[in-house]
Design brief:
By secondary structure, the chain is of the alpha/beta class. The chain is built from 16 helices and 10 strands. 34% of the residues lie in helices and 13% in strands.
């Protein structure tokens, strides 16, 4: 085992002290708003022993013709990713008649693997140290266990076997293996992937490979997510070089950034990071054992799919998104690209697709309109639709069609989109 240098020990001790000041898990548990707290209102249990926290946003006027929506966050984050802005996507979906389910993926929020270490791990969550026995999971485990668990939970609660799935980053990437390997891919009626691609157009991604290795090294000593909590209150020099992978600074409110570090950042599992290392080096997402190239199975993905990309995204860039999009076999697929060259109000990075101050006016209405066109029930009358916080796409100063690059087979009741 390598010895840590005095400088590394000093940095670790300083980080541990600062993290302790931030309150660790208690800080989040007693957050002033439910939107900032871990999901603990409901729970879904996986067949491999994890308990996943779930939060529900119920519409004031449910639309029986619309399927429930599941929102899934990315790696190293939790479900507050969707709700740290004031006018967030779950509220807009609920205002448009959708019942919305958010959930924390394994090892995020207050989720736990039930067993002998559970009590001790509750204590560790109040410290800067990592939990025991909760880090070996892979992306494949999320596909095999977390996704079926949340789908079963939604069916028990609503009686609906199918859902609309909206995922950001990893939360969308997992849809491709699920569609390829699950015995019930039809459980997903419609899929929206935001910043979600399983192909890297340029390899190797040297900066992200270095970051991946650095985080794995840090996780040998302490919790990277909890060490980041003090960034809620102050910014250290050089942080802009890290932040630019997450968001475009001028596009996101400072309060959102503060909430991100305080309430949303989690430890990415070392097992998942190892799986991503080969993806960043060679450009294709492989199974954890390296035997399955999920890219080769993309033609088998036939669910109606909307992919949303940001022009300034450094993690899931537009060329990589287009390559993934082109290989998907679905006859009903749409690609939306947002950025200044597309007529958007701002530049969109990886998390900006959800966090941007402009997203409630530019992106969310476009996503909701796409979903509305694909729901099984009849479209509600104008008198029956409750007024929501989001303007209709037709009322936007930059109509979503300005951002659309579409290749789509129209349904019988639709006309072919203009190119």
């Amino acid at each position: 085992m390598h010895r840590l240098s005095r400088r590394k020990w000093a940095a670790a001790v300083l980080g541990l002290g600062l993290s302790g000041l931030s309150g660790c898990a208690a800080m989040r548990r007693f957050a002033p708003s439910a939107d900032l707290r871990p999901c603990t209102e409901e729970f879904a249990e996986t067949t491999d022993g994890w308990r996943l926290g779930v939060r529900r946003y119920r519409p004031a006027r449910p639309d029986p013709g619309k399927l429930p929506v599941v929102l899934c966050h990315g790696l190293g984050l939790n479900a507050t990713f969707w709700t740290i802005t004031d006018d967030h996507l779950p509220s807009q979906l609920a205002a448009n008649g959708y019942e919305v389910f958010l959930f924390d993926l394994r090892a995020s929020g207050e989720n736990a693997r039930l067993g002998s270490c559970d009590v001790f791990n509750r204590f560790l969550r109040e410290t800067p140290f990592r939990e025991r026995g909760e880090s070996g999971w892979s992306v494949d485990d999320v596909v095999r266990f977390d996704m079926p668990a949340i789908l079963a939970h939604v069916e028990r609660e609503t009686g609906r076997r199918q859902v609309n799935w909206i995922g950001h980053s990893l939360g969308g990437m997992i849809m491709f293996p699920f569609q390829e390997l699950s015995p019930e891919p039809d459980r997903i009626a419609n899929f929206v992937g935001m910043g979600s691609t399983i192909i890297q157009a340029t390899t190797p991604q040297k900066q992200m490979i270095q970051a991946n290795a650095g985080i794995r090294l840090l996780l040998n000593v302490a919790s990277a997510g909890r060490l980041g909590r003090p960034l809620t209150y102050f910014r250290m020099p050089g942080m802009d070089k890290i932040d630019r992978f997450y968001y475009t600074a001028e596009n996101v409110e400072p309060l959102t950034v503060s909430r991100f570090y305080g309430y949303t950042l989690e430890d990415p599992g070392p097992g998942a990071l190892r799986q991503f290392a080969s993806y960043l080096r060679f450009g294709h997402l492989l199974s954890a054992d390296g035997r399955v190239d999920y890219v080769e199975h993309l033609p088998e993905v036939v669910v109606p799919t909307l992919m949303v990309a940001g022009e300034s995204d450094l993690i899931s860039d537009v060329p990589s998104t287009r390559m993934t999009f082109d290989r998907i076999g679905s006859p009903d697929k749409t690609l939306l690209v947002f950025g200044e060259s597309q007529g958007s109000l701002g530049r969109y990075g990886h998390c900006d697709l959800v966090w941007s101050r402009h997203a409630p006016r530019e992106i969310f209405p476009a996503v909701i309109r796409w979903l509305d066109e694909r729901q099984p029930g009849p479209a509600p009358s104008a008198q029956g639709v409750p007024a929501g916080p989001a303007p209709s796409p037709q009322d936007l100063p930059n109509a979503p069609d300005q951002h659309v690059a579409i290749r789509k087979t129209p349904r019988p009741h639709e006309s072919a989109p203009s190119q």
